Amino acid sequence: MDGHQDGVEREYRKRRKVPVVQVLGSYPFLLIALTHAFRQGARWIPLSLGLLAALALLRWTVHLWRGRTLVGRSGIAVRWTLTERRWDWHDVYDLRAEPVPNAAGHARKWFTYLYDTEGRRFLLPHLDDWQLDDVPGEVAALREAGARERGAAFERRAAVEELVRRRAGHRKAWQRAVAGGVFAFAGGFLVWAVLELAAGHAPTPALLLWTPLGVFAVLAALLHWRWESQVPRPLREPGGRGRGPVKWP
């Protein structure tokens, strides 16, 4: 982090090493599985999956080196992998350090998000525990500095909190629908591999394309219909973030 601890001008970028070996630990197993699938035929499957894995790795690498969170007297500017965005302090509804439930040992335990006045959430790059020792403390300092610059304290408003809850429910619905599709694809891949080894042929499109897409579509429709059930518990519990206008201490 660049800047003075008692000032508002700060830059957050990659400064510490990240656990690359642990993060990429599953890639050798993926490579073995893709190589085996390539030898068994239906080569478009491993080629497509390999391309997706390579693009995900490239995106993550670019984000580590290009990502920035810039804080100044006029507001906050963020540079993600490909895009950039800026908010004036009066357009910032809140800054929140949020823990990651059930995070793996090598994964990040804290992320920081900016919420705008429409309840939308945006990740602030490198404001996490890979780069900072005390993420909640750093965010509290930023909130205090931002309140000074805009001349008004951050406070919770019921209308915006309802938007935050609604967006959180729909976001979780998408995440769980995608996870369901991934699990369906993984199960279909195992069935496909067994049938290829045992019988020499398998219904590839049905197992690896239509079934995962069908599971994703059904889960997405159902979970979005029941979006309130997907709202994270801290936003649903009494006294949580979704309860009325409360001033920050």
Fold and architecture overview:
With 249 residues, this protein is α+β, with helices and mostly antiparallel strands. It has 7 helices and 8 strands, in the order E-E-H-H-H-E-E-E-E-E-E-H-H-H-H. Strand 7 and strand 8 form a beta hairpin. Helix 5 packs antiparallel against helix 6. The chain is globular. It starts with a strand and ends in a 13-residue tail after the last helix. The C terminus is likely disordered.
Annotation keywords:
five-stranded antiparallel sheet; globular; 7 helices; 249 residues; alpha+beta; disordered C terminus; three-stranded antiparallel sheet
Short structural summary:
The chain is of the alpha+beta class and 249 residues long. Helix content is 50%, strand content 15%. The chain has helices spanning 20-23, 27-40, 44-66, 135-150, 158-199, 204-225, 233-236; strands at residues 2-3, 10-12, 68-71, 75-79, 84-88, 92-99, 110-116, 121-123.
Strand-helix topology:
Blueprint: E1 2-3, E2 10-12, H1 20-23, H2 27-40, H3 44-66, E3 68-71, E4 75-79, E5 84-88, E6 92-99, E7 110-116, E8 121-123, H4 135-150, H5 158-199, H6 204-225, H7 233-236
Antiparallel strand pairs: 1-2, 2-3, 3-4, 4-5, 6-7, 7-8
- Biggest sheet character: 5 strands, antiparallel
| Whole-angstrom Rg | 22 Å
Low-confidence residue ranges: 241-249
Mean pLDDT: 84
- Please report the total strand number as a whole number: 8
